[in-house]
Amino acid sequence: MYKQELINTHTRIKPYIHNTPVLTSRLINKVAGANLYFKCENFQRMGAFKMRGATNAIMQLSESEKHHGVVTHSSGNFAQALALAAKELGVKSYIVMPNNAPEVKKKAVKDYGASIIECEPTLEAREKASKEIQETKGATFIHPSNDIAVILGQGTATKELLEQQPNLDYIFAPVGGGGLVAGTILAATHFGKDCKIIGGEPFEVDDAYRSLQSGKIESNNSTHTLADGLKTQLGEHNFPIIREGIERIIRVTEAEIIHAMKMMWERLKIVCEPSSAVAFAALLREKDPFKSKNIGIIVSGGNVDLTNLPF
């Protein structure tokens, strides 16, 4: 259903993104008992896979919509992604950020030329501020994960991975807002050979795991996780894709996230953020079903505060 759209999306955004490297480690393979291929979106422009979806979403707008700019609410990687993509494409961007967002993230967004609107750190406040920008500036709202143009953009990471490693049995991806894992499912369906998708999610924010059980979108009461990029919940566009296409979600503890992150730093020699270690942590938690399999792991990003590492 989405094969041609994924091909068109990839062609469209290629001039603005990196085809990121795929890394392997014999020692990690030995520990995992499987053949692992890490798709390193931490080397993507602005440091995360979200550059893909943000670029595609803006490029799909009409000239009139581009003229009036784009707006989103995000405290993290999508804020930077939309700001940089908009700058590259000559479009004005407005980013609503909670007033307690780290200064380093605010600075990055400003450096990419976006206008920051600060608000109280609640979803209600973020949505209200976004709505005001839409009404006063005529800007188009782009959701960080619940937008089909964004989902298709995120799926191009897996398309690239499968072009390099076509015989993957499984791909592990972290689950937060659902845009990455939904895109991963679509790409694996159309470009993989019976390739199944496993989601990784922290126990502390396991709304997607519970959503699959209940059949409706659940939210989180607690957000006490190092994986700050995974605190958001699924949306009505990505949830049906995930519900139909995911094999299962494996939940992990905070200690397991730290252990996986540390191993990636030590053995792959890469900077990855806690959210992107969750997929690898999920595999390490339940190794037996995946023995001797060929497994892709999406390393979602590398935007980490080096003054506040968990190890």
TrEMBL record:
What cofactor does this chain's UniProt record say it requires?
pyridoxal 5'-phosphate
User: What are the entry keywords?
Assistant: Lyase, Pyridoxal phosphate
Sequence ranges assigned to domain Tryptophan synthase beta chain-like PALP in this UniProt record: 14-301
GO MF terms held by the record = ATP binding; L-serine ammonia-lyase activity; magnesium ion binding; pyridoxal phosphate binding; serine racemase activity; threonine racemase activity
> Can you cite a GO biological process for this protein?
D-serine biosynthetic process
Q: Which Pfam families match?
A: PALP
Q: What InterPro entries does the record point to? A: TrpB-like_PALP, TrpB-like_PALP_sf
What PANTHER family has UniProt attached to this entry?
A: SERINE / THREONINE RACEMASE FAMILY MEMBER, SERINE RACEMASE
Family membership = Belongs to the serine/threonine dehydratase family.
Query: What protein am I looking at?
Result: Threonine dehydratase
Source organism of this protein record = Balneicella halophila
Its taxonomic path starts at: Bacteria, Pseudomonadati, Bacteroidota, Bacteroidia, Bacteroidales
